[in-house]
Every structure is written in structure tokens, then in C-alpha cells.
Amino acid sequence: MIAEVDTPSRPESGTGEGHRLPVRPRLVVASAFMLFLELALIRWTGSNIVHLSYFTNFVLLGSFLGIGLGFLRVGRSKAQPYYSPVVLALLVLVVLIFPVTVDRETEGVLYFTSLSTSGPPAWAILPVVFAAAALVLMGPAELVGRCFPELPRLEAYRYDLIGSLTGIALFSLLSFASAPPVVWGVIVAVAYGVLLWPRSLTRYLVLVTLPSLVVVAALASETLTAGALWSPYYKVTYERSAYGGVPVMTISVNGIPHQQAIPAANRLEWERQYALPYERAATASLDDVLIVGAGSGTDVAIALSKGAEHVDAVEIDPKLRELGATYHPDRPYSDPRVTTHITDGRAYLERTGKKYDLILFALPDSLTLVSGASSLRLESYLFTEQAMAAARDHLKPGGAFAMYNYYREQWLVDRLALTAQTAFGHKPCVDEVGSGRQAVITSGVTPAAQRCAAEWAGAKVDTPPPAVDDRPFLYLHGRDIPSIYLIALGLILLVSIVAVRAVAGPFRRMRPYADLFLLGVSFLLLETKNVTGFALLFGTTWVVNAVVFAGVLVAVLAAVEVTRRFRTPSLPVMYAVLLGGLVLAAVVPNSWLLGLPVPLRAVLAVVIAFLPIFAANVVFAKRFADTADATVSFGANLLGAILGGCLEYLSLVIGYEGLLVVAGLLYLGAFALMPRAARAL
């Protein structure tokens, strides 16, 4: 029975005995700090090391490694983890002194524009960031782990989850308030000061206070010198100037030039692609126009200059819209004919019932991934066959759809044109203008609704098929995992194995908890599937992302509370419920859910997504309560998340639905490895 095994263990050496905070509030604070620090590292390093805008998983995996090592280190040292603030200070200084712009030429990963690389190369800076993230997170994790032996198993886990929810809530609140990183740094400094009890005042001042002051000062300096606006997605900087007497505002995100706010007349004069959608569309009027990726407003200003009676401007980043409203020379967002919507473009299409004369996807390319969700970019679900079909369904009779960008590769132009052809049922107009494969793809709701200069020759034989919602990776030419990912992930796994052996000693300590390790692997795959699924159903916005992660923790907490308070079915029964939940999630397609009203869609999506999560965590809670060593068993589970984070790249090959199959097989493996005695729990 749980009640018989869920008893406090005798405090081990290196626990929090003598700390100013009682164990329960200390555990909540340490857990909140741990998750807050992880989220802050992912956001901040990605804004300065632009490789990490596309490989956010590297910091996430480094964090998982550090957290697992921190738990495994409990009981092996009495020393305070002073190394954590010291390494964080060094990491902040290195990143600020050696910022990196992205190398857009990497084989297998395609971007819209090409910029030269500055700063250390990826092979030099990424290992440094990965290792530093692991060492930084190892400290708070060790502080959390030291609380576990002082409490009953599930009570400790409960307070750990409450702290994690607090950390997510705090970081989300700061994101909503557009707080700069110096605020994050102050919170981190205070947390270090509270949690690292000064057994030696001199060491405390040198190893905690001084590094914390360095972090706060460095982040304050960045905030003041860069003059950046911090959106939930980017570090946004802007510069106002004049070009040939024309006012121009250049906007950069994460250090990369991203947009220019230019008067509509000058934009049309300088770049012909912006006028082509209006020439190719045969619509008789422009009563209603939808612009997805409205940004700072130039595309909106052009639509108004072309006679649009009303424009719905959709932009995912509130700061880009804010800059356009304040500084765009044409002031398009002040025009009464314009209504703005701060949301994801695909989500807007799925929610609105409005019809349009013209729908434009106006350079809706992001420069970041959905945090913690593998290779899913903010705009990934806009370029699928289903997205273009949704745009077609929102056109009035005689209406037209158009998209334009700098595509750089002929196969990408052909792939998007083929996607439009598949969605609309006929060949689109394809115009290539200027350099850099500038292209405009226009498709009328019927062939008569478009006026092509010449018929498109059609996609070449080697053109990839249209991207689909289950595998929305437009920029990958083949159905494989690019070599850069395979090499990096292989090195991460190798470093993780060596680090675990060095910190925790022989692997036989974790051998009894092999099933908990596999539970960690499969749970991260399940979490990835839910993040990407909710991004499709409700938008790839930061709000949806935060709600999903918080929802996962709430489901885990609910599972722990149910296990603590009630007699739950045996582990074999709970595994059957878990596998049944995975089957349900696999057989209910997202396409069916997208067709439902939003409230009903939300209810069913939550039930389908969180049933297996709840069952999986009842399994974990029952098994964890029966373990002989709380920190080692919990650490094994966390280390499994590293392998899960690597395996989520299988979605590039098998799609996100395929991850459910992999997760199901891993759960079966966990059941097979479960000790025989545990099956009666």
C-alpha cells in the first residue's frame, strides 16, 4: 500500500538541515526557481545566440541533463551548489561578449534570407551553452532534490509540482508585461540569495552575491544599450532613418534584420512583388482583405492604397504591431478601415466565419521555433495543404489568395505552388521577380478568378509533396533528419552518459529504475505531441504554449493528489488506461477537431490530450512512492527526458502522430521492466 511506503526517509548528508526556510516552502521556492531559470535561459540565449532560435531544444536538453544530475548528486556532497551562480555569470558574459547571428546556409535547414555569420561558429558556441545550461540548472535541482528525503515521496513531488506551476505563472506574467531580462536577472539573484544558505559568509559573498550582481549588471547594460523591446517571442530592436529622403524604420529581431516600415508608394516603386497580388487577382472589388503577417504595417498600407474598404490585419507579435502603429510613415493601423488581430494566422482562419475578396500571406516567416516543440516554427501550420484549403474556404465568389516572400530555392517555390494547386484544384499564377527567388503565388478560388501573365510550367519531378499538418516541415526537402541534428543529438547523448557516470557513479544505482527512465522518455514525447497539437488547434502563440505546459503540470499534480488520497487501480490496470488513452488520441484526427466550435473543440482536445498524461502520472506516482531511493529514482526519470527530447526529432520522419506510436511502445517497455513486486501496487 502507498501509505506503508510513503514515509519520510532519514535526512541524508547534504540536505537542507539548518536552512532558514522550512522544507515545504523551500521546496516550492526551489522548484519555482528551477523552472523559471530554465525558461529564462531558453528565451535569453536564443535572443543572442541565433542558432538557438532554431535549436531551442539544445538548451532544453542541457537543462534536463543538469536537473537529472542535480538529483543524482544529492547525498554525495555536503557542499552548497555555489557553482551554479558562478557558471550563470560566466555564461551571461560569454553570450553578451560573443553574440552570434545565424548561419542560414546549413545543409538541410532552409531559411528565407541569407546573412553572414558573426561571432563563434555553431560547433564552438552550442556545446558551451549546452554544458553551461546543464551546470546552471544542476544547482537548483540539487536544492530541490535535498528536500525530497525530508518528506514523504508523493508529498515532496506534490510541492515540486506546485513550485513548477508557480515558475511558469511568474514567467508568463513577465512575458505578458514585456519585462526585459534584467527583471529575470533580479528574480534569479534573489532566489540564489534565499536558497543558498551562507555556511561561510566569505564564500557566500564571493560565490553567490558577486556573480548575482554580475548577472544583473550585465542584463541591465544589455537592456539600456540595445534599447530593445522584449516581445514574448523576440528581442526587438529598431532604427529610424531616411533613404533618399524617404523615412524608413528597420526592425531587427534577435539581432537579425526582419522588417522595414516604408511608405506604401515607395515600397511598390522599389519592389514589384508587392503589387502583383492585386494585378493577378481578378476580383471586382476589395471590400474585405485579410493580411496574415501584417507586421509593422507596410502590407496593410499597400492594401489601403489599392482601394481596400476594410482590412483585417493578423500579426502574432504584439511588439511588431506596436512599432508599426507608432512609427510607420503611413500610420496604417490608425486608419478606421483597419482591424488588427494579435493572434496566429492559422488560428484566425479556423475561428473566423468571415469571407474575403483577397487573402494575403505577407512574408509570414518567423525567426524562432515554438519553444520546446522540436522543429515547429511559429508559422509552420500556415504553409500546409490544409492551411491553404482553409484560406480557399474563406474566399468570396471570385476571390483570390496570394503569398509572397524571398524563397531562395526553386524547389521551395515549386513546393508552395504545388500546395496551392492541390488545395485549389488548379494551377496558380507564379511570378518570380528580382533576386533571391522573390516569388508571388496567386490562386483564384476558380481559374477565372486569376489573371496569370503566363501559365505555370508545373512542379519539377524532384519537388517534395505539399507539407501537411501532421508533418508541417516546409523547409526540409527530404523525409529524413538532417545530419546536423543527428551529429548534435549524438554528442548530447554521449556527453550525458559521461556526465551521469561522473556525477552519480556506477549506473547500477539506477538499474532498478529502468522503467522510470522509460517513463521519462515516453512522457516527453507525449508532451511534445500535445504542444504541437494544441498549437494547431488554437494557435502557435506564447499564450497557448504556456497554457499547455501549465495544463500538463496540473494534470500531473491531479494524478499525484488522486494517488495520495484515494486507492487507485493497480499498475497493470493504469497501464491499460494509459494505452487506451493513446489509442483514443491516435484515432481522433485534428482535422475533425478543427471543424468543431472553439468551446467544444477545447473541451474534447483537453480530454483527449490529458487522459493519457493523467494515467501516465498515476503510474509514475504509484511507482515512485514505492522506490527505495527518492532522488536516484526521480533523477533516472528526468534523465529519460533527455532521450525523449532527442527522439522527438523522429517527427521529422514519421510526423507528430507517429510520436504516439513510439510513446506507446516505450510505455510497453516500461511495463515490461517494472519490478514484479510493483505490479500489485
From TrEMBL:
<keyword id="KW-0620">Polyamine biosynthesis</keyword>
<feature type="transmembrane region" description="Helical">
    <location>
        <begin position="658"/>
        <end position="678"/>
    </location>
</feature>
<feature type="transmembrane region" description="Helical">
    <location>
        <begin position="82"/>
        <end position="102"/>
    </location>
</feature>
<feature type="transmembrane region" description="Helical">
    <location>
        <begin position="182"/>
        <end position="198"/>
    </location>
</feature>
<feature type="transmembrane region" description="Helical">
    <location>
        <begin position="205"/>
        <end position="230"/>
    </location>
</feature>
<feature type="transmembrane region" description="Helical">
    <location>
        <begin position="122"/>
        <end position="144"/>
    </location>
</feature>
<protein>
    <recommendedName>
        <fullName>Spermidine synthase</fullName>
    </recommendedName>
</protein>
<feature type="transmembrane region" description="Helical">
    <location>
        <begin position="600"/>
        <end position="620"/>
    </location>
</feature>
<feature type="transmembrane region" description="Helical">
    <location>
        <begin position="632"/>
        <end position="652"/>
    </location>
</feature>
<feature type="transmembrane region" description="Helical">
    <location>
        <begin position="484"/>
        <end position="504"/>
    </location>
</feature>
<feature type="transmembrane region" description="Helical">
    <location>
        <begin position="516"/>
        <end position="536"/>
    </location>
</feature>
<dbReference type="Pfam" id="PF01564">
    <property type="entry name" value="Spermine_synth"/>
</dbReference>
<feature type="transmembrane region" description="Helical">
    <location>
        <begin position="156"/>
        <end position="176"/>
    </location>
</feature>
<dbReference type="GO" id="GO:0006596">
    <property type="term" value="P:polyamine biosynthetic process"/>
</dbReference>
<feature type="transmembrane region" description="Helical">
    <location>
        <begin position="52"/>
        <end position="75"/>
    </location>
</feature>
<feature type="transmembrane region" description="Helical">
    <location>
        <begin position="572"/>
        <end position="594"/>
    </location>
</feature>
<feature type="transmembrane region" description="Helical">
    <location>
        <begin position="27"/>
        <end position="46"/>
    </location>
</feature>
<keyword id="KW-0472">Membrane</keyword>
<dbReference type="InterPro" id="IPR029063">
    <property type="entry name" value="SAM-dependent_MTases_sf"/>
</dbReference>
<keyword id="KW-0812">Transmembrane</keyword>
<keyword id="KW-1133">Transmembrane helix</keyword>
<feature type="transmembrane region" description="Helical">
    <location>
        <begin position="542"/>
        <end position="560"/>
    </location>
</feature>
